[in-house]
Specification:
Elements: E1 8-13, E2 16-21, E3 25-26, H1 29-44, E4 50-54, E5 60-61, H2 63-78, E6 82-86, H3 90-98, H4 101-104, E7 106-108, H5 111-118
Parallel strand pairs: 2-4, 3-5, 4-6, 6-7
Antiparallel strand pairs: 1-2
Helix pairs in contact: 1-2
């Protein structure tokens, strides 16, 4: 995406793509769209994606962001990949629990836990 700053920090370690969000608040529709597109291209680049999304810096998520996460999860599963969410703030986790998305996603406490669960 030329001319657009990435909303993500991406590292690839031992075949696992580790993604950390730059923004504290993932609320803006435009940012959510670019985050979704960026993660989708990471998924497309892997034959069997193993992806960790770290929410270390994130304090707020909109419902549109949750929708994007569901789409990302579906894309990963379509390629027989695995997705882990880590470092989720307790208030954000509550939203996952209320919406029952904690049953859809594999949520682990930390990135090292996520790496171990993907090994």
């Amino acid at each position: 995406m030329p001319g657009q700053e990435s909303r993500l920090k991406v590292r690839k370690v031992d075949g696992i793509v580790q993604v950390e969000f730059v923004d504290r608040n993932i609320l803006d529709e435009g940012n959510i769209q670019s985050i979704g597109d960026e993660i989708a291209s990471l998924i497309e680049a892997e034959p069997t994606p193993r992806i960790i999304l770290s929410f270390t810096n994130v304090e707020h998520l909109s419902s549109a962001a949750l929708g994007t996460l569901i789409t990302i999860n579906n894309k990963v599963r379509a390629k027989a990949g695995q997705l882990r969410l880590s470092n989720i703030d307790p208030q954000i986790y509550e939203v996952f629990a209320i919406t029952k998305l904690n049953k859809l996603f594999q949520i682990v406490p930390t990135v090292p836990d996520a790496v171990r669960s993907l090994a």
